[in-house]
Amino acid sequence: MLIIHHWDTDGITSAALLVKALNLVEFKNMSPPIGEFRFDERIKRAIERSEEIYILDLNLPHEVEGINKSIVFIDHHIQPRIRNPKVKQINPALEGEEAPSASFVVSQYFNFWNTWSALGVIGDIGEKAFEIPKVGELLEREGFTKEEALRLVELMDSNYITTERKSVEKAVKVVLETPVRDLLTYGPWVKKAEAIGEAINGALAGAEVRDGMAFITFKSPFNIISKVARKAVWEIGYEGAVVVNEDFHGKAQIYFRISSKMAKKINMGEIISELKGKGFNAGGKREVLGCICEKDKIEEVLRIINAHLG
């Protein structure tokens, strides 16, 4: 059994939920290269050696079209239907419905719910997760406060933000083997989270704001781009944030997040489609877009985003 999952809290908890729901004793879990929406050679070799494959919280339908293996593809992002008959695609978005996280889709599909289900939602939509009754119910079962849940997501995400792919993959085992409350004091995650907090605040300090939209540019080896955008929109209250990490291990990262209000005016799906049509590695959903590109292509991506911003 091979489980390929996203590198964030939602991906990690989705993988842990799957393992528990299926009562798996032996499995291998892997994450794509941090910040890159693709299967690298390491994952492709693992796929060749596997008979059964689960892909969780990864908006990469094109990667499975040519794979002649039994695959279950569970996601919640906007995406086309997969044509490969070997792939079972489970995604409420295909029917025009919304799911707040892949963890919720996994839990609904297998009817297996616990605190991990809620943490995946909080990891994906932040404070808005607490408006969902099921999230509150699941946290209450474990006696988790809102602040503790947010902190645990911060700690879990520290693995991918510091671009430690092996730590992301190890995190699934840590979650499975550690009482959920004890994760709040898990030393390796706490240390990484402290360094990340300093880097995020440094990036936000350089924000330029025009018409309620924040434009933020910085350089960092940490994969903090989504965290910077979320803090700008969800905590500071900007209508949107266009965030650029000009040098992320030799590549450029561009992240565009908008508020729920702006989502009624801006069609993120159109922007993603346009970027993909021009060959860019991009993905996202209703309120967010992520793209990784060569550093000399930053201006081209920004021109496309700005054209939709007007």
UniProtKB/TrEMBL annotation:
Residues 2-109 form the DDH domain. InterPro entries: DDH_dom, DHH_sf. This is DHH family phosphoesterase. It comes from Thermococcus argininiproducens. The lineage of its organism: Archaea, Methanobacteriati, Methanobacteriota, Thermococci, Thermococcales.
